[in-house]
Specification:
Length: 260
């Protein structure tokens, strides 16, 4: 009997050589961030030297000599129409208000006539003025309040005028000054600019400028002071290109950028 030896397969152990590693590419060093240029240091501006009482007296003496009896540019017939005109002038020009009120005041120059006119018809007269719908509502409401609480007469106190719809501190100051001769200072955008730019009465708010001006302006000039300052700001001390060359007080003004 032939014996055949059993075949036992032998598995060869296969060993794989690891793939050669790629040479590490050196990382580029990040460039240091460029330093941001520092803004130029602001030049410190010294506070302007306050005006002396003699300088203030001189300034308003010049205003008085040039325009002894300044007039407000809002057209009106009586204290009531003045009140209405000032309320309508908020965020509007005096010329634009005058154009609308000339016809209006021919038919409604008292609180009762204004109420009889009514809000809808009033809007037709003042529709060329900005915010005319709100202003029409306020004028009708203030007319009713003047009749019911003040006997049909414009109140002669700041608190009374400020209680009326659409009227604020500036409105009260204008009416008290122009209608009743009170020594008040109405600060609009022109007076605010002049008070700050000249250094006469610097302030961050209209009230600060108002109180500052009342403090330094002599009583003999207060009757017309706010008109002089308004006109000066409107026609000479302009917002963008002040006309320093024709300014009556350019030698007294503290503005560091004046051109003379």
């Amino acid at each position: 009997m032939l014996i055949v030896p059993q075949y036992i397969p032998i598995m060869a152990k296969i060993t794989r050589k690891p793939a050669p590693r790629k040479a590490a590419v050196p990382k580029k060093k990040a460039k240091p961030a460029a330093a941001k240029p520092k803004p130029p240091a602001k030049k410190s501006r010294k506070a302007a030297k306050p005006w002396t009482p003699a300088e203030i007296h001189e300034a308003f003496s010049r205003f008085r000599k040039a325009n002894p009896e300044p007039k407000g540019e809002l057209e009106h017939i009586n204290p009531f129409t003045l009140l209405v005109a000032v309320v309508l002038s908020a965020q509007a020009t005096d010329a634009g208000v005058n154009k609308a009120t000339r016809a209006l005041f021919e038919v409604a120059d008292t609180p009762q006539k204004m109420l009889d006119l009514g809000e809808e018809r009033l809007r037709e007269y003042i529709k060329s003025i900005g915010l005319y719908r709100t202003k029409a509502k306020n004028v009708i409401a203030l007319s009713a309040k003047v009749l019911s609480e003040f006997g049909g007469e414009v109140p002669r106190t700041r608190a009374g005028i400020e209680s009326l719809p659409g009227a604020g501190r500036k409105t009260a100051n204008v009416v008290l000054n122009m209608a009743f001769g009170e020594h008040t200072m109405a600060v609009d955008t022109h007076v605010f600019r002049v008070g700050n730019r000249t250094g006469l009465a610097p302030g961050k708010t209209p009230l600060e400028v108002e109180l500052g001006l009342e403090k330094v302006i002599p009583a003999e000039f207060m009757r017309h002071a706010h008109h002089w300052l308004i006109l000066h700001g409107r026609y000479t001390c302009l917002a963008r290109k002040p006309r320093c060359e024709v300014c009556l007080i350019n030698d007294l003004c503290r503005w560091p950028e004046k051109t003379v």
